[in-house]
Amino acid sequence: MSRRNKISLLIMIALGLLISWYAARDIKFSVLIRDIVDINPLWLLIALGCILLYFGLESVITYMLVRNSDPNFTFRDAIRVPLVEQLFNGITPFSSGGQPAQLFVLIQSGVDGGRASSALLMKFVVYQAMIVINFFIALIIGFNYVIDKMHALAWFVVFGFAIHMFVIVSLLMIMYWHSFTKKFVNICIKPVKWFVKDDTFYKLVNTLNQKIDNFYKESVKIAHQGKLMVKVFVITFFQLLFYYLIPYFIMLALGYTNANVVMVTSLHILIVMIISIFPIPGGAGGAEYSFEMIFRSYITNGSKLVLAMILWRILTYYLGLILGVFALVMKPSEKAQKSRRILKGKSHKSFGGS
């Protein structure tokens, strides 16, 4: 972990503490303590179980996809991948550090770079598709409520949906209309030439074309693994379901037993979509504000609303950061280290013979 990433991690923790203090500044400490004591531990443990299942099921997906092409990959190494992803998603703008971090962990675990990229690509495509499907359903159920409570900010929900929809459509176009997509991208990028040097522009074009070609090659492999992809889709559905249910169980823990599970889950899906378009790592500030604005009609007690928001952020954001740090410093399994040495030996041998 670089010095810059360590600083970013510390800043995000400090910012989280500051936001929590600001949200609870007008609440008497004794009232907050009383609400904490009154929490139903069973429902809170179920909420904790949901986020752990979210991490666990992503580990299962990673294990299935990588193990399919690398029999030496272990489940112990698969567990590290989503946790390190959570760490770097949480400390980089727009969660941009998650994908490279996963690739690093897989290569560190002795997985060939090409196989690792292919597995991560499959996981990413399925995950994006499930997010769009879930969000579309949630939009139908809860958008009128969000419009009523959040007004103009509700259009961030639509904007977030548009971005995710654009991503999945772009991926599908590369998979099924490779030549057309490549030509279309090359036409769209031409105006960039007006603002940068020729060398920079042509490097950018070559990089984009290479990424499109690589994605297409990997997508061809995906097309021949139908049964595996169906399994990944089903597991991803349950993975996201457990994540989206967390606020519902937090509300039950705080005594709001009449909460509508479908509406609360749908509203959480919309909040997650709003967070995804905030440039600040972890959507800090925007996440807390969105949660309070949307759930204040359900949680009418001010102290419990702040407590629910803090518990939600601990489970869905800060727990991932903490576990991610441990996963990052954890050494790969002995089997993985052996595979890595073999790969290194092959690459040195290939280089020496060329």
Kindly give the count of domains: 1
Strand content: under 5%
Mean pLDDT: 84
By secondary-structure content and strand pairing, the structural class works out as mainly alpha
Using only C-alpha atoms, the radius of gyration works out to 22 Å
Main location: membrane
Subcellular location: Cell membrane
InterPro entries: L-PG_synthase/AglD (IPR022791)
EC number: 2.3.2.3
Describe the protein:
GO terms for molecular function: phosphatidylglycerol lysyltransferase activity. Keywords: Antibiotic resistance, Cell membrane, Lipid metabolism, Membrane, Transferase, Transmembrane, Transmembrane helix. Belongs to the LPG synthase family. This protein has 354 residues and is mainly α. The protein has one domain (39-344). It is built from 15 helices and no strands. Helix 6 packs parallel to helix 10. It is globular. Mean pLDDT is 84; it is low at 350-354.
Topology (elements, then pairings):
Elements: H1 3-23, H2 29-37, H3 41-67, H4 75-91, H5 98-108, H6 113-150, H7 154-176, H8 178-188, H9 198-223, H10 226-244, H11 246-253, H12 261-276, H13 286-295, H14 302-329, H15 334-353
Core attributes:
single chain; 354 residues; mainly alpha; 80% helix; 0% strand; disordered C terminus
